[in-house]
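Budget justification, computational time. The allocation requested in the original proposal was used primarily to generate structure tokens for proteins on the priority list. As evidence of use, we reproduce two of the resulting records. The first is shown immediately below.
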Amino acid sequence: MSKVVDLLREAVNSEEKEYTSGSINRAIVLLSIPMILEMVMEALFAIVDVFFVSKISVNAVATVGLTESVLTLVYSVAIGMSMAATAMVARRVGENNPEAAAVAAVQSIFIAIGLSVLIGIPGFLFADDILRFMGASEQLIVEGAHYTRIVLGGNMVVMMLFLLNGVFRGAGDASIAMRVLIIANGLNIVLGPMLIFGIGPFPEMGLQGAAVATVCGRGVGVLLQFYYLFKGVGVVKIARRHFVAVWDIIAQLLRVGSTGALQFLIASASWIFLTRIVAKFGSDAVAGYTIAIRIIMFTTLPSWGLSNAAATLVGQNLGANQPERAETSVWRASFFNMLFLLTLSIGLFFGAEPIVRIFNDSETVVEAGVLSLRILSAGYIFWAYGMVIIQSFNGAGDTVTPTIINLICFWALEIPLGYLLAITLGWGIAGVTAAVTISESIWAVVAIIIFKQGRWKKVKI
């Protein structure tokens, strides 16, 4: 027991660690524990946020669901650029070149600022039209447009938070990324109910309060990230001399990051189209579907923690010219993830109704949420391998392969199948969720087949 406690303590402290030698299982544990805690905190925020918003109205929950569907486009860009930063920083750290890693980190910051401005201005100005495009009723637009305007207009904090945590992960400083997200989302959770309901000295802002809490909490997280980078707590240490544009590195990051962003934009766009299909069945269906998706986020984000650990191990071991160790790390992480998600899928299937009722007790909302949750959780055993392997491609700097896989499985298969089952065959919301489970299971199988071919080991970044 004392050895387990010591390992946990080592995993969450900020001391520099070596991941290119020694036990692979130990490396996975040391990286994945803080990454899992980081992802759990992100998921906890999503669950708590929708819990408090659900106390306002069904339209409020539907607004969050529709806005989140659009915000996933921002997440896609942020994740794509963070993948590029993670891959490049991991390679430089594996090559034992921390100065080059710092330069790459600063170029990523420049890119994040530019992209967030391009997204934030139209998001702020056209919030009403965005909700209308998503199929929202005029009443919902009146109630929710300010929420959408604040969240999309303040996307820079989301963009920067994702990107700089990608830098920390690539360097193997997963514990720093964990601390940042715990503080940022912890502040969100505290501020959320205070601003929504007007607790204490805070004004009662309703749905707008949830948006303000998100921007403020994550903004504090970004400030903390810069503090860690300038103070030099982890492997990557930035200074004033690094704040000079290095255009060839920016071009390389944009090349890898744009493909990575496209990879997630393809996935995110498929969710937007699916949500648009769900909206045809009314606000109760959207609310139930949104609650189910938030629960799915809660259960799968820890798995993305394992996947991010695998990506870091791939990048650093390829940088250290150890491709076979990189591959072994991926299969080990995938197996651990499968055991975790298999257990969760059983629990979610049989416990779906009481879990959904925590968030809303409307019978029509509960019915939609339970049905969605049970069907979606059926695909966990396949997703366990798929998510780790897809992230491992990205960790190697090969963002093209996952993009092609996503394009085929999500756009060519998932969206048409969702429409066929839900609308043409009349399955309703069950058709949408069944299409997701089928398509993403095929996605995982295709990723495994291509990963075994080994071309990712030869990618240069």
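The second record produced under the same allocation is shown here.
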Amino acid sequence: MRRLFAWLAIPCCAALLAGWTTLGRAADASDPAPAPSLDRVPVILIPGLLGSRLARSDNGVELWPGSTRKLLTSDYEELALRIDPETLEPIDDGLVPSGIFEGAAGKDFYRQIMQELRDSGGYHLAYPGQRAGEEKARLYVFTYDWRQDNVRTVQKLDELIEQIRRDYDDPSLRVDVIAHSMGGLVVQYFERYGTVDVLGGNSFQVTGLGLSKLRRIVLLGTPNQGTVTAVHKFLNGYRVGFSGLPTEGVATMPSTYQLFPHPLVDWVVNINGQKLNFDIFDVEFWRHYEWSIFDHRIQRRMDRHRDVWPAQDVFERWFQKRLDRGRRFAWSLMVPAGDVPLLKPLLLGADCVPTPRRLVFENVEAESVARLRPEQILAPRPGVDYESLMFAPGDGSVTLSSLLSREDMGGAVPRWEQATPEAGRELIVCARHDALTSDADLLRALIQYLLAPDPAPASTMH
């Protein structure tokens, strides 16, 4: 399948690396590391979904990821959020972030990026509440409960930044942020709206309330226009080794709805490759096709453990509420900022791994069945290239088009009305989603970007 995308990936990489000249040039492993300075802007590392360890606050017992044995054997039902049937909000289950998930079973997630920031960037790992002394090149790790609504996480991020300002005794301090995957959505919402929850209605006036606290942003593999992979997880659950989180568990987590493809993204087609106008954020769509908690098999499974899962009517009302917020979250990040001078992030990603782009609906015995992969199609149509139709270049989880905010919206929204990153601020390599944080070229480019001096004001340039 790698060969299938060769004609797409090679020109794409060449173009993006050429654009990188706006920041200098493509990083090379033999380049000397930038000279660190003692008086530097602190940097915050934000991991993505599953990237923070979760433990019980009362006894410190770790539930995610836990031991290697747990990774191999657990169904992780205890990570499912409990739901208040009146407010349809999560009930506090006593789980708190207890550290970053650096790696497991010989696989690196965030260990390498932290090591590079220390060794090549000159940053020192710091913890909120530690007063900044002579050494000011600090690295903070923002761990959070990735199950929760991203707006709640935004509020926690603001608390961390305010504490860093107190540690530095500088109420106007700005920070740099490196965000992986879903973490990039968190920081972009914060930049646009601060801690204000704008998802209660359909008007998204970008205020830039978080701008005064941010200097530079780096996004690694962020699904800026959502990801079809999130839909896959709602149908199949999250697999981790030989264990996993069941689809009903995924459905209890507000953040997972906020990863769906943007409402206008072309994410589903029929067997002939023609676009279907299915609304992923409409609860009736899920009910009609009996997906996720509307699947009778899953309902029967939940009935056997109602001490874990909410009553079906409560779960369905919760589901609708989370879909509504997911839709608004997607729109809130795409609406133009108007006169608000948002930061232009550095985008780091990959384009060599076939990545889910669309689902295909096939009629089988008078029923429409969703196909996630080409080999599932029973009666393929001659001349239809299902590989290219259903997959696109990316990192295996996020397509390159979503990272760059260039997914096809069918002309429903003119390009000039979409919020898109500035061209030339991206570097694309060949890596999988969870390996972006350990790719040598991306790490070197990231550090060069963070340590580059701020441009001089226009009035002083000649």
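A brief technical remark on that second record: The mean pLDDT is 87.
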